[in-house]
Write a structure and sequence with these properties.
InterPro entries: PPM-type-like_dom_sf. By secondary structure, the protein is an alpha+beta fold. It has helices spanning 46-62, 69-82, 143-149, 191-194, 201-211, 213-226, and strands at residues 2-8, 17-22, 25-31, 98-106, 109-115, 120-123, 127-130, 170-175, 181-185, 238-244. Helix content is 27%, strand content 25%.
């Protein structure tokens, strides 16, 4: 595996994404920005969470012990929770949270894992997209509606304070043979496809491969700046990882 990546914060803000890579693996987390006025019950922010949690997952992947990916994520959530249980209310449903996306090569297969909506895109002769889209189908997007749905059956699942959330992630594997390239993206780096509709997934992979992650982020910033009447966050942290096989 040859890995290259760029991670860029929202202009003027701290980066709430986390990315790390090692021989045969990639981990990416995208922290959920806290809505204004919401009490998370935690003295820590999403940036703290993704660094602690992402760093723990990376350390476990580096051991190369073959433990299933959901088990690694569950252990990392548990250990991260233990690091601040004495100072923070981990029962608060608005505790800081993050997506988790993982790739790991083992022998002749590449394993993938996604928890929430940071997509993994693979070129296996055809484009395959692995994305947990449950957050796109909630009955309500009010603060209270999202609170009720977070890490609840019938809602959506994220990495926060409940280790069992790891087992709600989607996972699978593809053969290395025929796998040309893959992308691991925070939703801030998938916007040219998912939000602005400026290209398809095949175009995004081609752009990453030919011009690199930096160019993808540059074009995303252009689109964000020129989007008329943008709803929600105009800008977002953007992390793009290209993996060649």
């Amino acid at each position: 595996m040859q890995v290259s990546y760029v991670s860029e914060a929202t202009p003027g803000r701290e980066n709430e994404d986390f990315v790390a890579a090692g021989p045969g693996w990639v981990v990416l987390l995208d922290g959920a920005t806290a809505p204004a006025g919401v009490d998370s019950g935690c003295r820590h922010d999403p940036a703290w969470l993704v660094r602690r949690l992402g760093g723990r997952i990376a350390a476990l992947l580096a051991l190369e012990d073959g433990k299933p990916l959901p088990d690694l994520v569950a252990e990392a959530i548990k250990v991260t929770g233990e690091a601040h249980t004495r100072t923070c209310d981990l029962q608060n449903p608005d505790s800081p949270s993050a997506t988790v996306s993982l790739l790991r090569r083992r022998d002749d297969a590449v394993e993938w894992f996604v928890l929430a909506d940071s997509p993994i895109v693979m070129d296996v002769g055809e484009i395959r997209v692995f994305r947990d889209d449950r957050v796109d189908h909630l009955p309500s997007y009010t603060l209270e509606g999202v609170r009720r749905s977070r890490n609840s059956p019938g809602g959506f699942w994220v990495a926060s304070t409940k280790p069992e959330a790891a087992y709600e992630g989607l996972t699978g594997e593809v053969p290395v043979r025929g796998l040309r390239r893959a992308a691991v993206l925070s939703d801030g780096a998938s916007r040219l496809v998912e939000r602005f509709g400026q290209m398809g997934w095949d175009d995004l992979l081609r752009l990453l491969d030919e011009e690199g992650p930096r160019e993808l982020v540059r074009r995303t910033r252009e689109a964000e700046a020129s989007a008329p009447g943008a709803r929600g966050k105009r800008y977002d942290d953007a992390t793009a990882v290209l993996v060649r096989f």
